[in-house]
Amino acid sequence: MSLNVKVRFPPSPTGFLHIGGARTALYNWLFARHNDGKFILRIEDTDQQRSTEEATQTILDSLTWLGLDWDEGPYHQSERLEVYHEYVEKLLKKGRAFYVDEPEKGRAVRFKITGEVTDFDDLIHGNIKSDTSLIEDFVIQKGDGFPTYNFACVVDDGLMGITHVIRGDDHMSNTPRQIALYKALGFELPRFAHIPMILGEDGSRMSKRHGATSVTEYREKGYLPDALVNFIALLGWSPGNDQELLTRQEMIEKFTLKRVNKTSARFDNTKLDWMNSKYIQDLPIENLINELHPYIKKANFNGGIISDEWLHKLVELYKERFKTLSEFVTLTAPFFSDEIEYDDTAVQKHLKKGNSSLIKDAYEKLKEIRTFSIKELEGCLRSITNEHSVSFGKLAQPIRVAVIGKSASAGIFETLELLGKEKTLKRLEYTINTFL
Q1: Which residue among the candidates 93, 129, 183, 208 is catalytic per the annotation?
Q2: Which residues are ATP-binding (predicted)?
Q3: Residue stretches of the annotated binding site for ATP
Q4: Cα-flanking dihedrals φ and ψ of residue 241, to 5°?
Q5: pTM of the predicted structure, to 2 decimals
């Protein structure tokens, strides 16, 4: 086991926490937890023009929702300017930095590159060599007194005792500059691990055209945090077997950087939907109802809830039919609303004049039922199919379309029981007067 492991996740608060950033945070968190180490949260907000408090809060909320708790922080770089100034002065005194006047930007400080071959052993990609003589002297403190990313990052990592830097491989080009700064400042080098990027389903870099890209969007769409964490963990890492559904504890126990892929992973929305549906099905019904309440409220369906017992039955009935929490609202809208939309294809196929006598007979007989229970409903409808000498589907499908508006739903008896007598009869009457 590694000792005294300390890793960090340093988001820039310029927008939402994207899936790539969430995966980086997760890998750092898993690595820390696996090694009994510490996970540090650092807000890199030195870009004063683009950083906002709102974005900072959104990132904190997203990490909290994902369950990625941090052991230290959040540290804000904008509150550590004196620390960076102190280390700029050290480099100036050592002759490793110099002032430069930049037009319209003020007096900046540049770091002096000595020019040498730098190599480091990346824990994912192996040995990486870089000739720093090809790198120009670069700015470490801007004219406004704020440090640049590369400088503040190195100072913080050094002072915070970061042992491993686990980040996206788009930062690989920064590493030679940062290694030069570590050495010049006398800090011990951390171990680096650069994770390949996440690609869209078509193999191109993931972007808005592939659908949702931020944790906030996935949360709003109705994905469960445990499902999303499980899914992004497997975007570039394998537990070493074919297991796809893992608890957090299993991920912590199995996580090693040795099993992180060198090649980019592709985001698979179909797989995410499948995984989320599995987590929905495994959630205790009361917990699931609590998760669903915000979506029911947003759809203004609260007034349609007849009782807690009724909602419990409805969720239980549809538990294996929806892949996201928001999809539950779409599928069950006919149970909450007084009016429904009818699918044209379903109407054309099932609400034909040839079915007129069947539906009218069902309407009359259902009116006579006192208790709209599954047992009573089944007895009533099966007696009709026996009288008309037709298969049960010949009656069930037209009734389903009449009361739900589409040809797919949960079991017809359960559906009618939950709809209740008043809604069922009202919709059958509408169907008879409109379509038959």
Answers
A1: 208
A2: 208
A3: 208
A4: -145, -170
A5: 0.94
